[in-house]
Design goal:
By secondary structure, the chain is mostly beta strands. Strands 6, 7, 10, 11 and 12 form a five-stranded antiparallel beta sheet that branches. A hairpin with a 4-residue loop joins strand 1 and strand 2.
């Protein structure tokens, strides 16, 4: 009986120690945008976007790569692209900007970007393949019928498809116990539309555009 008892004790030890070894870094308990701010500067027709990314648990990584994505509202169900495709379907999503964000003293990560509204509108028109049939111009107050959404995407550092900047940390391992596809993917609560002609109290030149910002509505 002694060999059987010894074997049973060894099995209990393995079962007890194995999970402890597997938990070699803490799980990520929280991953979200703790602050979102967007402001339209009417004088310069620029859009100032600021977000703060917060994370509880995981490893204290010094940097992450952050993406600002844009896509037609009608395609929101296709973002992110379903598996087994890559996270970003380039036929649906336009990458407006990407950069590294550094860890603050409080453990969060700040991201701020100023967007030129006219250039942004032209990118939307090109990406959405919008044409004359997509335009309305009642009384000179011109606009495109289709609106766009913005989203923030932060891949895991181990993601070699999207964490690609040269100045990212060399040690990239972070225990993704839930096998999430991204550290963060969060659509911003705004709907962006394109205006031309008469806008506000002024008249835009031919070929010039302005961006209208409104709350995003559930479909």
């Amino acid at each position: 009986m002694r060999p059987i008892i010894l074997l049973a004790v060894l099995c209990c030890c393995v079962l007890t120690v194995a999970p402890a070894k597997a938990q070699h870094c803490p799980p990520i308990w929280e991953s979200y945008l703790s602050r979102i701010s967007i402001e339209h500067d009417a004088k310069t027709r620029a859009i100032d976007l600021k977000v703060k990314y917060s994370k509880l648990g995981g490893r204290a990584m010094p940097k992450y790569q952050i993406y600002l994505l844009a896509y037609l509202e009608q395609n929101e169900r296709r973002v992110p692209a379903p598996l087994p495709a890559d996270f970003i379907d380039k036929q649906v999503v336009r990458v407006l900007h990407t950069q590294a964000v550094e860890r603050n003293a409080d453990g969060s990560y700040d991201f701020a970007l100023r967007l030129n509204a006219n250039e942004l509108a032209k990118k939307f028109i090109e990406h959405g393949r919008l044409t004359e049939k997509d335009r309305k111009n009642p009384g000179g107050w011109g606009y495109y019928e289709e609106s766009f959404r913005l989203a923030i995407f932060i891949p895991f550092l181990e993601d070699r498809t999207y964490s690609v900047l040269e100045n990212l940390p060399e040690d990239r391992h972070e225990c993704n116990y839930l096998q999430e596809r991204a550290l963060l993917f969060q659509p911003l609560p705004y709907s962006l539309g394109i205006h031309f002609g008469r806008v506000g109290g002024g008249q835009l030149a031919e070929g010039e555009y302005s961006i209208r910002i409104n709350q995003a509505k559930s479909r």
